[in-house]
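User: Structure please.
Assistant: Input sequence and predicted structure:
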Amino acid sequence: MAGFYEQFGSELSVIREGNLSCDWNKGLHCCRMEFMHSDAGYEPTPEDDLLHDVLLKGLQRGRRPFPSYFVEQWIVALYGEPLGLQEKPGTGTGSITYAYDATLAQAYQEFADLIEPWRGDAEAISFDPEHPENERQLFRSLVQRFGARMGHCCAPQVDIATILDRKTAAAFTAQRGDILLHFPNGRSFLLEPGDHDDPAQAALDKRRDAAFGRAGIATMRPRNAEIQDEALYSRIEKGISEIDGLAFLNDVEERTERQLACNYLFLLPSLIARIERLLLYFFFRRGLMRRETLSIGVIERDLECAELALASFLDKVERLSKLYGWQCAVPRISLIVQRNTTYRYGDLSQLEIPVERCERLNGREVDLLLDVAIKCNALTPPDLDGAPNAGSARQTYVHNRPVRFGYRAEARAIPVTDESEQILATFVQDYFRKQALRPGQGSILRNVLAQKSTIGLLPTSAGKSLCYQLAALLTPGTTLVVDPLVALMKDQVQSLVEQYGIDRVLAWHAGAGLHDQNIGALLSENLIVFISPERLQRPKFRAAMKSLSAGDLFINYAVVDEAHCVSMWGHDFRPSYLTLERNFREYCTFQGRAPVMVALTGTASQLVLIDLKRELAIQDLDAVVRPDTFDRPELNFNLVSCSDTEKPEMLNQVCTAIARRLNVQQVDTDAHGIVFAYTPKEVWKLFGQQVGDAKGFVRTVLAGEGQHLRYGAYTGSAPKDG
């Protein structure tokens, strides 16, 4: 059986929408998964590989991204009522948003029902082979003193290399920590019992303790004689208290409807993500998708999850297959579930998935057996005997094993059909919680997904970025984005992380502390990498790209954001823009495939477009995709002609008129805006007449409850006095 430390988490979009905060979810995405299968070989088809790679990319796009909109709708419908959670009526455009009780934020912050009581056998746990009884006695005493939940907070014989960074762990090769106490808030400390009187061993222990200390993990080294001493457990309790872990050990009486709802609202998305990962592997790597009939058994150690997870998985497979123009035949599935009845809540029969419930799955013949939990760690071992294909998921401590993207599949052109835009809209709902594509996005996306080099024009704020972001998520491969400014890179990354939970993205600039020789890891650990055009000119970067030999990495899309810079800046002070096409072709071609060129801009004259097509070697007649209109109905333009001497009075009249339109008394104190002029000196002259001390007004304003906000005037040079 193969076991892996993985990262699969998810949370409802309302958590980010409402900016809800807590301390308990810091380790929610960390899990351990096991896979077991018979020796019967199966060679995945190209279609299998593509569906597997793209759907896995979607699951791993962040630590806690949104679940599919399908899953979120069902979770809200089944479990949202006790907290007043319901979707707001949509208008057909804009974001999908929710209404909820004011108590939701408090319930999320105070939630602590994250650990299931441990009911295992201490004799079956593997401790230090040299002195197992001391550690076993310590473990038993911990459970006796702190309750059964403590069992699922203990990780015995933990591999140090999974906790410390690689360079530090190299000094302690093949060494293990005795018992790591880990809690859902991501904090932990290490118990190292034993009588280590040898000077050399004591010196090694001291170095290890220091290394763990730098990682934020304190070490306690009780002597064997202390294991029976009550004073030791008082010290351990103090240690747990210092890392805010005691609340997670409290017994939970019979759960109320509201408490059960919180369990499902806060934890079920992550559990479903893990089940979908297991299903992906067995369906497309082991060929179960090709069966005519398929029996699946699921052991639910805590939350009820099997029907919704299976329905979500099949829904994604169907939509992605349709997008690629494939007919995907699904096996006739019989589902058998062993439930934990203490979590029975919600009417799952509404999903209309036939399910057989049984007291115990052990001994039942099934084609695939899954043993899953979100509130148990590996000390509740999975019961996987007898099935030809079996997998498990367990919660674990916060580990350092990164997500690495690898692609067996090659990028394929997605055909344009009558259904294309409708299907794309469902993935926009999944990943970005937008109700639909905005005008102009669909045309660009269809071109890009057809693997055609594209110049896409959309007005500013019309959603250009989503075009390459969605394409990156729906095709195998890494996306490289060239941005002209570090601020734009940071803004793109911040938006993806904070708004959508997509954090497998990287802004690579001089201040990021990254090194060219690490390019392989950086590309394999991120979906989208933002760089400047100058980075492609660096000899070390070029050499590193040339040396990449991984057969499962390639750049699918090379995106030029703010592409008008190629023409407007490339011929002047940033000539690196003029070598983009050659650099992409020469240094970003992997497995014999050059990336698809995507140039996006909100402003480009016909001359700029001609220049773009020439410099980026985009020659297809349909390469330029324009919106139906550049009209921005929310913007109004008014031109007022006056002489130079009349400017101050005219500006005063304009500001008065704006104040009336905005229904404010003073436009300079009750509204926000931007003043442009030919020179900085003129801005200060005109603006100063409106607000008096212009410098003092611009540099510091009083806002809210005495909070001072600082900002400045943005010009090509520092403003001059006058």
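The chain is about 35% helix and 15% strand.
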